[in-house]
Amino acid sequence: MSRNYTRRKFIQISGSASIIGAASSVGTADETCTEEDFTVRGRKRTKVTYDPDVITVEIRKTSEDLVHRLDLDSATVTEEIEYNRSSFEEEDTLPERGTDVTTERWETEIAYEEEWQEYHRTRRAEREESPGGIGALDEDPEEHYWSYPVWTYSRSATWSGWAYEKKNPINVTFENLSGISEVTDVLDDDGWTSLDWRHGHEYRRWGYNHRTDSFESPTSYGTSRYRPNGGDHAKIWEFVDDRIGMEVHEDDEIPHSIVSRADPEGRMLDLFDDAGYSTFEDGYDFGNEKGDHNGEPSIVYP
What we know:
single chain, alpha+beta, nine-stranded antiparallel β-sheet, eight-stranded mixed β-sheet, flat
């Protein structure tokens, strides 16, 4: 049976590591990590190969920091996606044949799941013991203070377990709605498409739920399924009833680099305004600045 959609290869970190050695180094009680401890700096290489039938995207990230950060002898984070051009809903404007390679600096925060859990538990305990406790209106709250996700994460497989890399900021929140389906109903009515990561066109992402100390996958929507020439892309989480967080951005053409977060945030507010909802621009201070996102997600409510 032919598969008329794209193929996504599993994210892997290549390199050798002792499962016992790497796993035993995370989440120790007497050695609490900070986000700076999770920081790695290196290079990211994106290679796009164009063929009349298929477009292949290979992303390789390398860093000596990554080697030490994950207790590997050597490491390269790789991800590959293949797009079947016959699956595109619209005609793409990309080259018929050829190869394009770009290289750029790469700086991020990456840690094993157990390390992120220990980090958030420790910060949460510190906050609960401080005067005033945890409050949603605190200035520049950290991620573990919120009922919403604050960042999205990618996930990579190593011999020692899952490593999660901080990626993109939540920039829209929803309050007092009946559930996540109320958000997706508006997107459906506007012609957006529900995206299934198993079809391979998705860069998979997770959000950290501090109430369960676990990473959870989102509901994902796009202005079209593959967006070969670019478009808007939204990932949505609901960790607590009536509290929904969204990360929405504008992609350029394949390989889908993010060109804006602020512009699609504004378009999302306009969409819900037109659907009869109230909106409040820059309603919270999440302190999750990145690119043209100012760290202050907007609020949508009935």
